[in-house]
Specification:
Elements: H1 5-17, H2 21-34, H3 40-47, H4 64-75, H5 79-89, H6 92-101, H7 115-127, H8 133-147, H9 150-160, H10 170-182, H11 185-198, H12 201-217, E1 231-234, H13 238-244, E2 249-254, E3 258-265, E4 268-272, H14 284-293, E5 298-307, H15 330-336, E6 339-349, E7 352-353, H16 359-369, E8 376-378, E9 381-384, H17 387-399, E10 404-408, E11 421-429, E12 440-449, E13 458-467, E14 472-479, H18 485-496, E15 499-500, E16 507-508, E17 515-517, E18 522-526, E19 529-533, E20 548-552, E21 555-560, H19 572-588
Helix pairs in contact: 1-2, 2-10, 3-12, 4-6, 4-8, 5-6, 6-9, 7-8, 10-11, 10-12, 11-12
The structure holds adenosine-5'-triphosphate (ATP).
Length: 589
């Protein structure tokens, strides 16, 4: 059944005029009721100025210059006249309305526009590519304008240039669908769930219209259609978190990267961002990693993608990932800013929709389908009901370069709440962040073997501050960044004469190094900040019982302090002062 495009244009005009949300909903209800069921999806997309759901990368995308050319052609007027008018109106829609109303060429036979024709023409415009694309778009658009009424021309022009601006939110459309086809609150919830697991408002509308609520109830997760992400609430103490989660939870590292929802269908992998855009092209390396490490044939999995140091494999701050947000030069960026994936949920595996299963079941499915490696890991976790243990795990996460923890419910009802920010996930982040401005001089007390490009030399050094009170060296950080190739080549040679077979008696360390040294060599290091840490012994118990202090994101400045003896290194008391200074700085800011 054909629907005149004028019906849509009329509805747009009324929606544009209203200032009340309820009225807007009513107008939408009228529109969807009037729409033949078979094209309701298209009408829904059109009301939002789109042709497809956001995850489909196909936009009409007509530049203003091109729209002007099409209008000139359809109205028989000069481009310069149109440009002049556009300068005054500031709205290509209004200008089009005016010029179509005062056409030079009078058309004797006007074929009234149908929604189907408008949609199909837009679709052809969106797909036009290659050398003739611009001309093709102009003539397709001019063809529509030639048959359009002035009012229709206004909305056509606004749509193709991305200026429809009716501001119809997804939630408003869901309300309208529930009223038009569901009748009541129950319908609203069911329809919303269907939307949350498909992110496709058009498909939801079509199923509601054609099959009613029964159809909606049967709505399934589909590989290729992104599921709207579950989000976390936030609390700032481990006591409150445990209480809220019923005394026990799975606490996972909160990795500081970009969220990805990976859809695997055989060999084909699609990655969606937190906003559900298709970002597969930006991350060919992540695609490849998933292809090789997901055992299931079909799956929908969630991961945090984190920038890592290519030399040491350590996590880098989130900002470094921003270098991967680009259209060109992807290969080079991939080499300079490699990534690791930390998997944290499984929503669908080989025919099974897991979204309504409790988290422990989903996590088990995740563990079974991921073949872990250096670059693909399952989010580090503990299951705990102990405040102290949770607190220590939090500090460990911070020190390892994470933002904190995400604590997850393990109760029976711990389903995947698609599209909702709820209390089944609670994030635990620090309230402050500060910068270390001064360098410190630290003693090399141990080292870890390098891998990959660093095989044969050190991957990272274990560094310590000096505590004159008991004449010991207390570890404060593991540093693998800032070393040039030359440094790396000469380090093993330089340290050779200090190697000992076990931890030096004056070194106080919880961490087990691969190689131990006599405390002798001092290097200069700059870090991002000093944090509490349960695994480093520097100033243990001074600020907090059970915690030492650590330097986060340390970097060798290039200075070997050969002028300093180990005992001249920065003292633990100085580190405590620096830590307190940081806190003061935060309090003042
Ligand atoms: P934020 O800016 O704090 O990341 P957000 O609004 O993007 O907030 P939230 O739901 O509040 O998202 O916090 C959870 C976010 O943390 C997820 O979106 C995800 O990107 C990230 N994340 C990192 N590690 C995990 C994990 N183990 N489990 C769940 N989410 C994780």
């Amino acid at each position: 059944m054909q629907m005149p495009y004028s019906e849509i244009a009329d509805a747009y005009e009324k929606i544009e005029a209203t200032t009340k949300r309820l009225e807007m909903t009513d107008l939408l209800v009228d529109l969807v009721k009037k729409t033949p069921k078979g094209i309701i999806d298209k009408v829904v997309y059109l009301t939002q100025g789109k042709l497809y759901p956001d995850f489909v990368k196909l936009e009409i995308g007509v530049a203003e210059r091109l729209a002007i050319k099409a209008l000139a052609k359809a109205s028989g007027r000069k481009e310069s006249e149109i440009e002049e008018d556009l300068k005054k109106s500031g709205d290509i829609g209004e200008t089009a309305q005016k010029f179509i109303a005062n056409k030079r060429q009078v058309t004797f036979f006007r074929q009234p526009l149908t929604v189907q024709r408008v949609y199909e023409t837009f679709d052809k415009m969106a797909r036009a590519s290659g050398s003739g694309a611009v001309d093709a778009k102009i003539s397709l658009l001019a063809g529509l304008l030639a048959d359009a009424t002035p009012k229709e021309a206004k909305y056509i022009m606004r749509t193709v240039t991305g200026n429809l601006r009716l501001g119809i939110a997804d939630m408003t459309v869901l309300d309208a669908l529930a009223i038009a086809y569901g009748g009541g609150k129950e319908a609203r919830e069911l329809i919303e769930r269907a939307y949350n697991i498909s992110s496709d408002l058009g498909r939801v509308a079509r199923v509601v219209a054609e099959k009613g609520l029964d159809g909606v109830k049967k709505f399934q997760v589909v590989v290729g259609e992104p599921i709207r992400p579950m989000l976390a609430e936030r609390l700032s103490s481990p006591e409150e978190i445990l209480e809220k989660l019923g005394g026990k939870c799975i606490a996972e590292y909160k990795y500081d990267g970009e969220r990805m929802q990976a859809h695997k269908k055989g060999d084909e992998i699609t990655l969606f961002s937190r906003r559900l855009e298709n970002i597969s092209d930006q991350y060919p390396d992540a695609v490849e990693l998933l292809r090789n490490h997901v055992l299931a044939e079909d799956a929908i999995l969630e991961a945090e993608c984190v920038a890592i140091d290519p030399e040491t494999g350590e996590m880098r701050p989130f900002q470094e990932l921003m270098h991967r947000r680009r259209k060109y030069g992807i290969e080079k960026a991939m080499e300079e800013y490699p990534v690791s994936l930390f998997m944290f949920d499984a929503l669908y595996v080989d025919g099974k929709d897991l979204t309504l299963k409790p988290y422990p079941v989903r996590r088990k499915a995740l563990e079974e389908t991921i073949k872990e490696s250096e670059r693909v890991k399952i989010a580090k976790h503990i299951i705990t009901g102990d405040v102290k243990e949770l607190e220590n795990f939090f500090l460990e996460a911070i020190e390892d370069g994470c933002e904190g923890l995400v604590c997850k419910s393990i109760a029976e009802d711990s389903v995947y709440q698609a599209g909702a920010r709820g209390w089944l996930w609670i994030k635990y982040k620090r309230d402050y962040k500060s910068e270390m401005t001064d360098t410190v001089d630290l003693v090399v007390v141990g080292a870890f073997h390098g891998r990959g490009k660093r095989a044969g030399t050190f991957g990272a050094l274990l560094l310590a501050a000096y505590n004159p009170d008991n004449d010991t060296f207390e570890t404060i950080t593991k540093c693998g960044t800032g070393f040039t190739d030359e440094d790396l080549a000469k380090l093993p040679e330089m340290m050779k004469k200090h190697v000992i077979s076990h931890k030096h008696p004056r070194v106080n360390s919880i961490i087990e190094a691969d190689v131990w040294f006599e405390p002798a060599v001092v290097i200069e290091v700059l870090g991002a900040e000093i944090t509490l840490s349960p695994i480093h012994t520097c100033a243990m118990d001074t600020i907090r019982k059970g915690s030492g202090l650590a330097i986060r994101f340390p970097r060798f400045t290039g200075n070997y302090r050969l002028d300093k003896a180990a005992e001249d290194a920065t003292s633990t008391a100085e580190i405590v002062e620096m830590y307190r200074g940081q806190l003061k700085k935060i309090a003042e800011s």
